[in-house]
Amino acid sequence: MDGFKVIDGGKNPKHNQDNNPGRSDNPTLFDALDGEKPVDELDADTIPSWLSATPTPAAPSQEPQLSAQERRWAWAEIDLEAIKHNLKAIRKRIGPGIKIMAVVKDEGYGHGAVPVAKAALNNGASFLGVSTVDEGIALRRAGITAPVIILAEPPIASIPAILHYQLIPAIDTMEFALALGEESSAQNKVTPFHLKVDTGMNRLGVHHSDAGDFLRTISFHSGLELQGVFTHFATADEQDTYEFKLQLDRFNSALETIRYMGINPGIVHAANSAAAIRYKVASFNMVRIGIALYGLHPCELTRGVIDLHPAMSVHARVSYVKPVSVGEGVSYNLTYRSPGSVRIATVPIGYGDGLSRVLSNRMDVLVKGRLCPQVGNICMDMCMFEINMRSSGRVPRIDVEIGDEVLIIGRDGDTELTIDNMARTLGTNTYDICCRFGLRLEKVYSE
Fold first, then answer.
1. 313-446: which CATH topology?
2. Are 356 and 378 in contact (CB under 8 A)?
3. Which fold has domain 79-309?
4. By the 8 A CB rule, do 440 and 314 touch?
5. Rounded Cα gap, residues 222 and 224, in angstroms
6. pTM for this structure?
7. pLDDT digits (tens, 9 = 90+) for 22-57
8. For the chain, N or C: smaller number of CB within 10 Å?
């Protein structure tokens, strides 16, 4: 017992069931731990260093300078050269003279809004699209001065921030339009906006048959300036073109009415990634490029039509390796049982990082050029995979050690784990997968 000090020795009645309950005359460590007494009222000889020490924040110049990979063995790599390539491919597809809006909402589909926005603006994009006022403010605070359009009408209470940061809102209600105009005029400003027209998505927007009257009603307001008119296609990524053509006809009809009333619609945009790639007739003055910007196809119909390079890969390093005896289970609920002659490796990435728990026992990881099955239930912060210790002439055994890099998404040689395949397994789309991985994983950028 040398080196250990017994504190209180069980003599405090409060912590000794052999005595009558009561309060000791001398405060003890137990009182401090129970929150009954402050530490500074205890005998200094009874206070362990871990309880008495007060952490002192380090000055910024004294903080350890660690990379994302050093702080945690799980990260996402974003290839900005791929962003550049994809924009060039889009430009080639749509031709010259048509503006490109880079849609960087939801933290750039998980890729990082500010780095992607800067890369896009340097390679052909002239507008940026976001979903919320906060997303627009983040771009402005990063020094981005390009036009930023909020693609969904924000709350009226956010109008002062919209004016201050010179953001361009979408409008689809009279209440917001009038409130924006009044505040804008009060500040002696003229605020540009884009009218959102509902042509069949039935989510947001002024009904296509009312678009002209809506604009005529608010045209008196000196604080407002119509910069553009747009709609959004619900089925541009589908084989059946009926609904797409119906929406396009409705939008063209709304534009015709607007022009007939003597109103210039300004920048007209309707095409998302799928429509921009598939239908030149939908390009108008500008296209809105979201998922294709990040190198992912909006649908199977665009494969072979345009060459896109995925910008995101997801990496981790092995943090633990151990043999698991035959019949022993792994992870919560023991959904996997060892067949014997295997080792189990743990990597610090889980559903808290976007790796869906539904993928448990249904996916592979890539290590040293070899596909290895993920096993056991995926945890919040980690998951496990199996290393087969058997070997044959055709499949030699691999030796995996702590620190070895593991690919969750990405390519190694001729083998690739794709966001598309992960989305198919989960029954969702690639947008969903990208956004999940962008929530917590540190991002590392390359060009």
1. Lyase, Ornithine Decarboxylase; Chain A, domain 1 (2.40.37)
2. yes
3. TIM Barrel (3.20.20)
4. no
5. 6
6. 0.86
7. 445 555 655 555 655 565 665 666 666 666 666 777
8. N
